[in-house]
Amino acid sequence: MEERIGILVFGAVFVDIKGYPFSLYRADGRNAGKVVKVHGGVSRNIVEDIANVELRPTFISVVDEDGIGEEVVQKLTRHKVNTRFIKRISGGLGTWLAIFDTEGELMGSISQRPDLSSLEEVIREEGDYLFSRCDSVIIEIDMDSKLLKLIFNLAEKYHKKVYAAVSNMSIALERRDLLKTTACIVCNQQEAGMLFSEEFENMGLEEKLSSLSSLVVKAQFPQMIMTLGSEGAIYAEQNGNAGHCKAKKVHVIDTAGAGDAFFAGVAMGLTYGKNLMEACEIGTKLAASVVGTSENVNPRYLPEELGLESLTE
């Protein structure tokens, strides 16, 4: 039976350490609460989100050689992620330390990224096989530039669309040339403000939409989505098409992972035949399902529940 590749996801795996205060959070004091550890990382979350819609993606990443690394791989495998190309190396896991307030909003974080340079070997040895068979490609645009160029060259060779997720906009700003060749960029309002040197937070919704549409055309980005939290998301395309997708009403428990689920929904929608508005609606539904729980990923859905053709056979 031919190996299924599905959506090809590149990126890092983190261990997320999250703190939740029992009462009002004080930045200058000691806060009683609970601390939990979960598997995280933008790309790891995204690949599990896709797998939870039964679409069987493939993950290209690194993990530690210890028990935690093996636990990550085993969990992804149980969720029907193709983990055959994950490398086990010393120091392969990153760490994200985050503190939330009682409303589930992120108050501050520190991250330590793992070294992904060993993935160059995987791409050089398996790249033609993977890219010739995949449905699309997802990358973290702030990965090492040498690694990104290898990925974009293979995507161009095999005519595969690349979707760019942002985990550190300060680094992503150095990749503006590559952003022009991605099929769609997804970032939040703060990140978009950094990307365009624009103060979106001081604008009304219609002004934000008009500004984003103009900036996307000028920057020659094919498609872009800017998430706005409780206001939903706005999107713009190079052809001038733009619009607004409303957020779902949900009781907020933990916002961590919601942006990754939104991105996963958008990438799935665009990969499997949806237009940008329809893809935004899928992303919005998945993000809402994450915000209402303490999990980093969306719960299980059947593809048909999101209007996607089943590709699990």
TrEMBL record:
Domain of life according to the entry: Bacteria
Tell me which InterPro entries the record gives.
Carboh/pur_kinase_PfkB_CS, PfkB_dom, Ribokinase-like
ATP-binding in keyword set: no
Q: Which residue ranges does UniProt annotate as crossing the membrane?
A: none
Q: Name one Pfam family in it.
A: PfkB
* UniProt keyword list: Kinase, Transferase
Provide the GO MF annotations for this entry.
kinase activity
The record places domain Carbohydrate kinase PfkB at 7-295
Identify this protein by name: Carbohydrate kinase PfkB domain-containing protein
